[in-house]
Structure formats: structure tokens, C-alpha cells
Design goal:
The protein is 42% helix and 0% strand. With 64 residues, it is mainly α. 11% of the residues are buried.
Length: 64
């Protein structure tokens, strides 16, 4: 999945590995204020998670 195809809802569906924000919560700055945009690592993690879920579903279909 391309990063530009990610919606904000998909990005916040995973926890942020940079600031530790939980799923469904916005990223935080070091000062504790909300970050305007999600950290790039969170976007990569969301794209990777979506791809893994997609491939996992494909593998389960192929095993039948």
C-alpha cells in the first residue's frame, strides 16, 4: 500500500512507535502537545500492518 493511499483513520488505527501514542490517539510532540500530523514511522507501520493483514488473508485462502 502506498503512503498517499492511507487515510487518517487507517494511520491512527495502529500505535505510534515514535511517541508511543496508543491506537485511535493522535501523535504527541515531546512537549506533550498533539502533533499536527502523524509521525512518518506510524504511517510506515500502518501501511506494513495493512499489507500483512492482506497477505495473511490471501495465504489463508490459498491454503483451502
Amino acid at each position: 500500500m502506498k503512503l498517499k493511499d492511507l487515510t487518517p483513520e487507517l494511520v491512527v488505527s495502529v500505535p505510534c512507535p515514535t511517541c508511543g501514542a496508543a491506537s485511535e490517539r493522535p501523535c504527541l510532540l515531546y512537549s506533550g502537545e498533539p502533533h499536527i500530523d502523524s509521525h512518518i514511522e506510524r504511517k510506515f507501520y500502518a501501511a506494513e500492518t495493512i499489507e500483512l493483514r492482506r497477505w495473511g488473508d490471501l495465504e489463508s485462502l490459498l491454503q483451502r
